[in-house]
Amino acid sequence: MAIRMITSRLSHSSSSSLAYLFQGRNSRVATTAALRYTTAAPIAQDPIKPSVNVEYTKLFINGQFVDSTSGKTFPTLDPRTGEVIAHVAEGDVEDINRAVVAARNAFDEGPWPKMSAYERSKVLFRIADLIEKHNDEVATLETWDSGKLYQQVATIEIPMIVRILRYYAGWADKIHGLTVPADGPYHVQTLHEPIGVVGQIIPWNFPLLMFAWKIGPALACGNTVVLKTAEQTPLSALYVSKLLQEAGLPEGVLNVISGFGPTAGAALCSHMDVDKLAFTGSTDTGKTIMSLASNSNLKPVTLELGGKSPFIVCEDADVDQAVELAHFALFFNQGQCCCAGSRTYVHESIYDEFVEKAKARALKRTVGDPFESGNEQGPQISSEQFEKVLKYIRSGIESGATLETGGNRLGTRGYYIKPTVFSNVEDDMLIATDEIFGPVQSILKFKDLDEVIRRANATKYGLAAGVFTKNIDTANTFMRALRVGTIWINCFDTFDAAIPFGGYKMSGQGREKGEYSLKQYLQVKAVVTSLKNPAWL
Fold first, then answer.
1. Is the pLDDT assigned to residue 379 strictly greater than 90?
2. Virtual CA dihedral for 447, 313, 464, 417, nearest 10 degrees?
3. Quick check: pTM over 0.85?
4. Residues carrying an active site annotation
5. What is the mean pLDDT of the chain?
């Protein structure tokens, strides 16, 4: 999931996007761009050594760091090299049970849900303050574990994490029910109550950002949480767990388990004492989670799943600007974004010009160590994802799309892939239907508005879309016609703590962020009291 943070460190205008962060470097790195793309020089050298030590590798249960019950650990790897960073405790069924018991006790008997909403807000503010204070350490761990750019994490993602937590801290004492008029002598009110113990599972592409998206509204509403990290990226959440203690979060309110989906994840989803689930990840895994939830205690589920988002470039577009924005929409975060603009539809009148310029922009993209200033792209997350992306590239070639540039790995070490651009892509090709989750841009041609709307909607996904046009009538037509949860017009990946995010169709259910997400973590109770001789009704 890509993210844009409006902050004075990046921009003075709310209309800018993450593209601002990268465009400013182009002139400075232009002289070395071709070298970095066509050779393995920046990748073959020894990777930059991170400036932090990995101190927290155990499970965080009931306010303490503990070993897994089995004593098992698993390695978390550096995507730059494939080498082991650290061995992390491997949570399993018994560890999920321990964490759920801790969360249940904290909800039923602990101070958290009984604490005033204002006091809860102060704890959330302190958590945000501590993450901001430890920005550099957290950013280094996140980059080391995930391969994403250090500058991206330190100057965009962590400020957004802090903003999200402060946003929900502000909401904590503004959650309330209503007084409802009813026929007859009755006083009717609604209470908005926390659901209870919430199970949350976060992905590897934006580990700590999704951590904040999940825990912010859940804790603001007074729930307790058991959160499972992605097995590829456990380190940042475990580090932040230390900060929870320092912030004064009561024991058992938030428990963090590192482990694997078929074991720890399945146990969390099936647990009879978990009252609600929230998951971000693939659509196939989302289906499994819904099945486990329904087959246990019918717990409600919020899902933010996959996407195959169209990015539509109309005939009136400024081609240079459209090329840059489309490039950003796809390649940001190594293409590992659920809402990536991975189907680039371009009007036939400007198609050839767009393709040539998109190819040239991809060739300029600097790929290398994510800790090195000036690089725009790091490695894919894992060997599995690396091979998956290369498989889709081979599929694109075999199905008859034109490979304009890229198409294979960069260097011989780590999981780096050359920025890849395909033209002459057809709607039924796998590169146009499947979520690749990598640096592969597919450019398709369209003739008119009705045609591209029909084609853009002809997918099982409905997460997001981008539209690039100067015509307000055209923009308004797309705004209502595209069946997606978010539409960006002349921008992309514009996010804010207050803007809801989620999908139509098989891209999920429910919404993250904003006021809408609070509803996912609350129960509504109606209370009806008989009135004797009321003065008024």
1. yes
2. 110
3. yes
4. 304
5. 92
* Cβ contact 469:475 at 8 Å: yes
Provide the b/e sequence for 116-139 (b: ≥16 CB within 10 Å). Answer: eeeebbbbbbbbbbbbbebbebbb
Convert the pLDDT of each residue in 182-223 to its tens digit: 999 999 999 999 999 999 999 999 999 999 999 999 999 999
Contacts of 387 (CB under 8 A, 6+ apart): none
The one-character DSSP state at 532 is: S
Please, are residues 503 and 463 in contact by the beta-carbon 8 Å criterion? yes
**Given this model, what pLDDT does residue 43 score?**
61
Query: What is the predicted pLDDT for the residue at 34?
Result: 34
Q: What is the pLDDT of residue 44?
A: 52
Q: What does the buried/exposed string (b/e) look like for 436-461 if buried means 16 or more CB atoms within 10 Å of the residue's CB? A: bbbbbbbbbbbeebeebbebbbebeb
Residue with tokens 């990268």: 22
Tokens 């371009």 found at:
346
pLDDT tens digit sequence for 2-39 = 333 322 222 323 333 443 343 333 333 333 333 344 33
Q: Which residues contact 111 (CB under 8 A, 6 or more apart)?
A: 250
> DSSP string covering 172-216, please?
GGG----EE--SSSEEEEEEEEE-SEEEEE--SSSHHHHHHHHHH
121 Cβ contact partners less than 8 Å away, ≥ 6 residues apart: 169, 170, 172, 173, 220
Alpha helices in 24-134 (DSSP H): 26-38, 41-44, 93-108, 117-133
Which ranges of 399-464 would DSSP assign to H, the alpha helix?
430-433, 449-457
Give the helix ranges, DSSP H, for 376-471.
Answer: 383-398, 430-433, 449-457
